[in-house]
Amino acid sequence: MTAPSPSLTAVLADLAAEGAELDALVTAPDVDFSCPTPAAGWSIAHQIGHLTWTDELTVLACRDPEGFLAARSAVVGDLQASIEAGAAAAVGRPSSEVVDRWRAGREAALEALAGVPRGTRLTWLGPPMGVGTMASARIMETWAHGLDIADALGVQRAPTDRLRHIADLGVRTRDHSFTTHGLPVPAAQFRVELTSPSGKRWEWGPKDAAEWVGGTGLDFCMLVTQRRHRGDLGLSAVGAAADRWLSIAQAFAGPPGSGRVPSES
């Protein structure tokens, strides 16, 4: 059985914790914000700049829906160019200035999300979403871009059960993954069974589903955020459609991502 959705307070607490962990990583001594990361053309500064850009858009979506719609029309007109420009805004600036603006955006996003009236659907760059889903998406972004930074610095981060939010998004965006690749959406639900970092069992879908995906929560989250190539992960699939999903999965809005190349080892 799928676990009940956590309260907004709990999701926001996990979002704050995810941001604080990344903050400690990028403000450690001798971190060079010009250091390249696995994302092609992106340095650590780009990664933090992107998180700042999306946090500030989140605040606008929560507090000024009409203002967000105006900004959205320009952004979605050329989404990739807008993403690149948002990330590049941090490049060449003192790292302390980059971090200060990111911190301000994180705090404002937490406050804005907490203040959204219950039941509100927030307009976003993709489909509208509830405030809890928006907060989970911010956890996903912070964790995924933080993983790129950790990889750049040669740091191995210990996974936490905060990954549950990302895994849930990955499952719920299954249909989008097929649609954005121009593929028919499977009619039947899949069974997804993952093992959390703490050893808990995370489950989605009917137990008697014909198609099945299993593995660790960490591997699944790296897959749906496209931070690792499928061939480098220990995920299993039963059924042709489930197997295809593992090759196209993406928990983020927008067109298909380019993913990552397989490791050489």
Short structural description:
The chain is an alpha+beta fold and 265 residues long. It contains ten helices and six strands.
Write out key terms for the chains shown.
265 residues; Nonspecific Lipid-transfer Protein, Chain A; alpha+beta
- Parts with pLDDT < 50 across at least 5 consecutive residues: none
- The level-1 CATH class of the largest domain: Mainly Alpha
Counted by DSSP, the helix tally is 10
CATH H-level homologous superfamily name of the largest domain = dinb family like domain
Q: Can you summarize the main beta sheet?
A: 4 strands, mixed
Using only C-alpha atoms, the radius of gyration works out to 18 Å
Q: Please state the structural category.
A: alpha+beta
Strand order of the largest sheet: 4-3-5-6
SSE sequence, one letter per element: HHHHHEEHHHEEEHEH
CATH topology name of the largest domain, in short, is Four Helix Bundle (Hemerythrin (Met), subunit A)
Number of domains: 2
Mean pLDDT: 94
The tally of beta strands, per DSSP, is 6
Shape: globular
CATH architecture of the largest domain: Up-down Bundle
- Content of β-strand: 5-15%
* DSSP helix fraction: 40-55%
Instruction: Report how far apart the termini are.
Output: 37 Å
